[in-house]
């Protein structure tokens, strides 16, 4: 990410002449008749196509993950997009599979989340705003469940729901802290049953996780029906199916389940679909999109949210079990500035050269590297270059990585597009020919406690796990309900291997406390809460929206 | 609406082979390149097209309105669609301009709202569910304003907003009574400023009214900037512009502002766009859609919500002022069953023949007729036929209407499609050649009180208007802020000319109390509340959603 007088992301995006989406579809063998257009530059892939191609052999799969990031992020999406463009430049038919951005952070802090510089997906304005309506459909489906639930309370409570034990929350795709803790049903008997409630951001909804893990409409409906929304007064789980609306909710999501086809700046076909949080959920784009991309191209580049300890681990231990295939190689994105931060440098001094801090902070990269290798997969390190990186820092980082016999590449896709990722692609190419022997971190039939222990000791480097009284009680309930054999979705800070965001580098010997265990039976995982996890962000004093505008001709500015 | 063993609406819809939307566009002279496809059977009309055709002369315009309805509605949409099909059958190039349905009532009571029988707009599943995302965009824009407002309170309240005097509410496009009265911002200082709030259904949002009255993106943005959301502690109005987000909110609505093109069962081009409530708002589809249809075809059939006293009056006194043109004729839809109800028959006995009750209830039709004629427009009565209507009843209704020298037609479009509306079309055709002399009910520069007096005495038949203390205070505020010269949007029951839903027929001598006057400065009207107006419906004991489902192939059932 060289910062010398470059154009803004939206300027670069708006200067790009996009290919009609039907032409992008042709590149992956789909005819105009087969896709569902949403304007000229977006399309959905219908189930007829997904069924037609389902018996094809799969292309290769590369997972892009990262070290523990700085608050600004380390440019995983940018590397993912640029790498796919690079592979297409060197003759490998490649697609991208990415998450779709949430509007809340776009209007709040980020301004946009579709890659950056010359490694973006387009049309960036649409993708960052309403796109094809998937997230709005999820919001509606989520809140319809809430409305049916509160209506059931109102209509005599035939399901014997304990209003104090409703775990299903409402959602909006906005940053709106004032909705975190609310009371509803006020105003007397005709206006509902009073109770506490709260709104999460839509991408934290279990519906989002369900949509991203479902392999068909039938599977989607089955998952929806299993979602646990509350307990009865005698502590039995109440599900969406108990409300009798699984079919209606699946109906609301039938179009949202279809993967979205768009393109990169260089015309690489991209499936951008689903965007669950990587803390409270598993943080990867949809299984259907990745599966579809694997059928349509020789190589798929995909990413997982946050660092390799969160999104990366969950991709491997949660998503691959639904995907039916595993990555052939992993790209671990690192930045000089993040490594210096892990070496003790203050956030405000990250632009100053500091080779010593980099050496110390390298421990963070090293542990992520070893973790990813422990799944039996080859790893390549990608340095996402920034203007402030010095030659001495980059050389030291290369030396340290090569001493571990791990390939490393200087990645300049932000500034150069695919051309800036050709070296990375060439380092990956031979690895894709090798046979991998993938192994999961844990077996599903291990106990919840054993799985969490393995995560904390083998991946995070902690020494001990303890469980709060609440978590212990929840563990018993999980056993009673026979939910033990689900994978674990760890909800912890993205800034550290530990549950303390200030513990940089590769901390050891720390203890982890599991505060809560939340069964997400529709998604099919147990969330282990290791701290206060923000599921509804707030807006900053000066939200990004203040700079946004649209002309009378419909041209947008202020998304950056 | 003959009820003998007919197929359900969704069965008829799903059996219809639709034309590709590009073919429908060709019928009105638009090329494939000019429209923005949303799947194969929906498209948006971009601003380039709207600008290209704006200097064309207008087609003729027919407004379909109705007598005071029964709770089930009298089939205005069905007549509107069938009449357009009929005109196309007899060689008049005709388009339909309709509102888009709200998802809340679809999931709750109605099951679907896109016409009925053989007079429907298609694809009915899409139109009834997420359609092209317009209503979701409105939900998001509305709630973004709330989030920015609460963020302003949280960040030191620089606008000096009085949290007790915030009138801007959040919205969802669902029936969800538990959200009518809520408290937000609970949970301590990092979670917002505690205050009372509530959710309306999205179609009751001022943003919906704004979108439906805006004539361009610039006009949309200007209207948004003027929306009053709160008062300061010293009782000054606070607007969206004060929050600094008018541009961002307009940006969120730029695609929603483009009219949606679909088709009727008989392939008539239909613009289905915008759907404001007809009580708290003006109840008509968007000005841009109606204007566009008038440029694209020789004749446009459009409808207004509820009866002629609500939607009809507002179409004429509010929408036409933005539209820049007025109807050439009015169709007043009546049903035998509703007239019998106005004649005193209980809702449960409406299927029994009762000519005497019909004669009495005819007073309701007669007053609506005279009201519509008072605008200087020719009116034709359309009997929307039901299976339970007897020949004696229909003959009596025809006799009574013809005695007033008003054309009347028996309309069978539900059962027969356009063929069932040819007689109605032929009765309208000569009227369209006549010159009309349209006159508004009131001038904009009359006082708020004078305008409301004219509405109550001239349209409703009441004798006196009184204002609550609150309304009197609000009237003074309206004067102080120079908002007097806006039209009035009456919010009252749709079941009676009066503010009492049980006062059937053509009541006289009643008094009306205006409880509140709510300035909707973005929409550009003053809402006069005549009673408790439901702006967030509830769900019934057995919501329509219980019967809805979707197959693994994506086929929907249970929308009826």
UniProtKB/TrEMBL annotation, chains A, B:
Which keywords does the record carry? ATP-binding, Ligase, Nucleotide-binding, One-carbon metabolism
Which biological process annotations from GO are given for this protein? tetrahydrofolate interconversion
Spell out the reaction equation it catalyses.
(6S)-5,6,7,8-tetrahydrofolate + formate + ATP = (6R)-10-formyltetrahydrofolate + ADP + phosphate
Look up the record and name the pathway of this protein: One-carbon metabolism; tetrahydrofolate interconversion
* Gene3D superfamilies attached to this UniProt entry: Domain 2, N(10)-formyltetrahydrofolate synthetase, Formyltetrahydrofolate synthetase, domain 3, P-loop containing nucleotide triphosphate hydrolases
Quote the record's binding site residues for ATP: 70-77
Q: Which GO terms describe its molecular function?
A: ATP binding; formate-tetrahydrofolate ligase activity
UniProt cross-references to InterPro entries, sorted A to Z: Formate_THF_ligase, Formate_THF_ligase_CS, P-loop_NTPase
- What EC number is given for this enzyme? 6.3.4.3
* Family statement drawn from the similarity comment of this UniProt entry: Belongs to the formate--tetrahydrofolate ligase family.
NCBIfam families assigned to the protein according to its UniProt record, in alphabetical order: PRK13505.1 (NF010030)
What is the protein name for this chain? Formate--tetrahydrofolate ligase
Organism field: Lactococcus fujiensis JCM 16395
């Amino acid at each position: 990410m060289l910062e010398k007088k470059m154009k803004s992301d939206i300027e670069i995006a708006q200067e790009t002449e996009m290919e009609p989406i039907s032409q992008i579809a042709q590149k992956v063998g789909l005819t105009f008749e087969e896709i569902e257009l949403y304007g000229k530059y977006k399309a959905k892939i219908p189930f007829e196509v997904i069924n037609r191609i389902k018996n094809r052999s799969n292309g290769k799969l590369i997972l892009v993950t990262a070290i523990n990031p700085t608050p600004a992020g380390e440019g995983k999406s940018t590397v993912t997009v640029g790498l796919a463009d690079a592979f297409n430049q060197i003759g490998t038919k490649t697609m991208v599979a990415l998450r779709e951005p949430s509007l809340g952070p776009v209007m709040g802090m980020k301004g946009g989340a579709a890659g950056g510089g010359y490694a973006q997906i387009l049309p960036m304005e649409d993708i960052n705003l309403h796109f094809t309506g998937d997230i709005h459909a999820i919001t509606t489906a989520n809140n319809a469940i809430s409305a049916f639930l509160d209506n059931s309370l109102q209509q005599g409570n035939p399901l014997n729901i304990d209003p104090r034990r409703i775990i299903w929350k409402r959602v909006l795709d906005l940053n709106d802290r004032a909705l975190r803790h609310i009371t509803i049903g006020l105003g007397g008997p005709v206006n509902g049953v009073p109770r506490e409630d709260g709104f999460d951001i839509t991408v934290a909804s279990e519906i989002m996780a369900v949509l991203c893990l479902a392999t068909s409409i039938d599977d989607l409906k089955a998952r929806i029906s299993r979602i646990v929304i509350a307990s009865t007064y005698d502590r039995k789980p109440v599900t969406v199916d108990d409300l009798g609306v699984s079919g209606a909710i699946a109906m609301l999501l039938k179009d949202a389940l279809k993967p979205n086809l768009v393109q990169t700046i260089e015309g690489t076909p991209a499936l951008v679909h689903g965007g669950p949080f990587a803390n409270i959920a598993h943080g990867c784009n949809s299984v259907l999109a990745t599966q579809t991309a694997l059928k349509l191209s020789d190589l798929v580049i995909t990413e997982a949210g946050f660092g390799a300890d969160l999104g990366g681990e969950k991709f491997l231990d949660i998503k691959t079990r639904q995907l039916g295939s595993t990555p052939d190689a992993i790209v671990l994105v690192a930045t000089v500035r993040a490594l210096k931060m892990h070496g003790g440098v203050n956030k405000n001094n990250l632009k100053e050269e500091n080779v010593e801090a980099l050496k110390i902070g390298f421990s963070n990269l090293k542990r992520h590297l070893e973790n990813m290798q422990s799944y039996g997969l080859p790893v390549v390190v990608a340095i996402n270059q920034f203007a402030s990186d010095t030659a001495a820092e980059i050389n030291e980082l290369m030396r340290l990585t090569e001493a571990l016999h791990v390939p490393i590449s200087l990645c300049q896709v932000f500034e150069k597009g695919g051309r800036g990722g050709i070296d990375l692609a060439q380092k990956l190419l031979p690895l894709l020919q090798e046979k991998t022997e993938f192994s999961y971190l844990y077996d599903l039939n291990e106990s919840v406690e054993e799985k969490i222990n393995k995560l904390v000791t083998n991946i995070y480097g902690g020494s001990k796990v303890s469980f709060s009284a609440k978590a212990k009680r929840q563990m018993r309930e999980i056993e009673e309900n026979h939910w033990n054999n689900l994978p674990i979705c760890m909800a912890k800070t993205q800034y550290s291997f530990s549950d303390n965001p200030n513990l940089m580098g590769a901390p050891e010997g720390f203890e982890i406390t599991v505060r809560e265990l939340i069964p997400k039976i529709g998604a099919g995982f147990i969330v282990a809460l290791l701290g206060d996890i923000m599921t509804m962000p707030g807006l900053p004093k000066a939200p990004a929206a203040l700079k946004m505008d649209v002309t009378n001709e419909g041209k947008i500015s202020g998304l950056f």
